[in-house]
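Slide 14.
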Amino acid sequence: MNSSRWIRWVWPVVPIVGALLVTSLLLFLFGAAPLEAFQAMYAGAFGDQSKTLSVVAFWIPLLLSATGLLVTFRAGLWNIGVEGQIILGAIAASWVALSLNAPSWVLITLEILVAMAAGALWAALSAVLKTRGKVHEIFSGLALNSIAIILTNYLISGPWQPPEGGTFRGTEPFQPGALLPLYANSRFSPLSLVLAIIAFALVVIALRGTFWGLKLKAIGKNLRSAFLLGVSSEREMILAMMFCGALAGLGGAVRTLSWFDSLRQSISGGIGFMALLVVMLANYRIILVPFIAFFFSMVLNGSITLQLRTQLHSSLGGILTELMVLFVLLFGDWSKLGIFRKKDQDG
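Slide 15: predicted structure.
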């Protein structure tokens, strides 16, 4: 294996190591023991079965959202609106849970399908604004995120308020048959894991082994050249956004039907923005996304125990993950480092 290929595979670890070193330095400067802090985070993530299952439960909607973003990034689209698409999926699933009485398998099937449809349609709004209205997807996505949050607050304090009166805490709990089946009284649903694995496999196949994946890549690389080759950029962009929105909507359904048992304020938990960081840290490599998403889930769940055991603020987990992304932005593309190219050419 030549040096360039070896560096290409090893280099993604550099941002993680760099972020750990910088975080350790910050802990040392503030008088804390880095090893103790990292041990507390690990114990918070994997200290017992319930904590481990919580890590997996949080990882699933994060993986679904990041998987969808792989599609939009391949098409050259910054789907910042993924946060709102998660929320719309949660709202749609909640509507089914609150308004229908049916056998559990019917309710769950409808909740999943309606949530995916809602996420896809919400993403389509951003896509149409870009293709027809020339509104950049970042601006439309941020606006639609805000509208989704306002809609959630309106529903839980208005039409869907609990019998005791309006509150921003959430709706009344869903009927038991509307919730995803959970494992060992945890927040983890095996069904959601199966759905996430299927979704990830479909995206891997679509991006690596289909003509649609090649068209998305062509659009992402050079929009004008793709047009000259006969690729309908408008149609493919809308489809890419809707595909991502469907997976994000599914993540919202998983979030509200397993992590919670009702529609809550801030139901997305920032997962959409976190998914963007995951894909950036993976440097858009499909195979790395599940592992990095799991690492994020581990750090963020472990940070709660960190605060309890060491009196350090739980935001340390966020600092660690954001430092990783910063290091990716600074050093993620090893091919730009001329020293390695020169060595390969000399070899």
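Speaker note: Residues 334-347 have pLDDT under 50 and may be disordered.
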